[in-house]
Amino acid sequence: MGQIALEGMEFFAYHGYYDEEQKIGNKYGVDLYLQTDLHAAGASDNLEQTVNYETLYNLVKHEMSIPARLLEHVAHRILEGVYQQFPFVQQVKVSVSKFNPPLGGICHRARITVEKNKA
């Protein structure tokens, strides 16, 4: 087993519980971690035997472009999308952060993290 990670992805998106948040938008960060077998790709140097980072990034970018009320929902969609695109992945962990959330005070980011093992 091994880990593939895309860390520090940033997007401007329109997520939020309040209607105003979905109109104004905000900056978000996403960190994604996958557990999968990397031995075949390591031995063969063949991209088809592993996760394509560009495909993975575009999956996250697509899900971030669809407005949602809750960060938990966005993270769930990303997680399920990874399993659909790459069924051989054994575990997915995704964190979604909202920068400077409107809480009435100083808060650099609000972050949620979800993790799922393949059943």
TrEMBL record:
E.C. no: 4.1.2.25
Class of the enzyme per the UniProt entry, highest EC level: lyase
A Pfam family annotated for this UniProt entry: FolB
Keyword list, A-Z: Folate biosynthesis, Lyase
UniProt keyword annotation of NAD present: no
Superkingdom assignment: Bacteria
GO molecular function, one term: dihydroneopterin aldolase activity
Lineage: Bacteria, Pseudomonadati, Bacteroidota, Cytophagia, Cytophagales
Function per UniProt: Catalyzes the conversion of 7,8-dihydroneopterin to 6-hydroxymethyl-7,8-dihydropterin.
Domain Dihydroneopterin aldolase/epimerase, first and last residues per copy: 4-116
Record protein name field: 7,8-dihydroneopterin aldolase
Annotated pathway: Cofactor biosynthesis; tetrahydrofolate biosynthesis; 2-amino-4-hydroxy-6-hydroxymethyl-7,8-dihydropteridine diphosphate from 7,8-dihydroneopterin triphosphate: step 3/4
SUPFAM superfamilies assigned to the protein according to its UniProt record, in alphabetical order: Tetrahydrobiopterin biosynthesis enzymes-like
Tagged with keyword Lyase: yes
Organism (species): Rufibacter sediminis
Family to which the UniProt record says this protein belongs: Belongs to the DHNA family.
Catalytic activity: 7,8-dihydroneopterin = 6-hydroxymethyl-7,8-dihydropterin + glycolaldehyde
InterPro entries named among the record's database cross-references: Dihydroneopterin_aldolase, FolB_dom, GTP-CH-I_C/QueF
Gene: folB
